[in-house]
Task: structure prediction
Amino acid sequence: MSTIKLIEEPNEVYFKTTTNYKLEVDGRPLTICIEEDSNESMLHYIDEDGNTFTDTPDWILEMGEDDWGDLIFERTLYEAGISSLPVGEEIFTEDE
Result:
């Protein structure tokens, strides 16, 4: 018989999560999926049929970009902390 003993607290070196968010943007329904790992985050859009795509819908693009070329919509989600946003709470974009 062998003995196995944990001798140190675990050290997470890599993680990956995928989270879907059902949103309403200016009255329009939108589902997004944020895929995150230890290195980056990627936002996907999900249509009514459940198809996932990375191309940003035109009506989201129309919200504009900030001075660094990032989409205002996406920046607002990350700055607001979408992962901890309570259901029903509204956040607002800032015009550049």
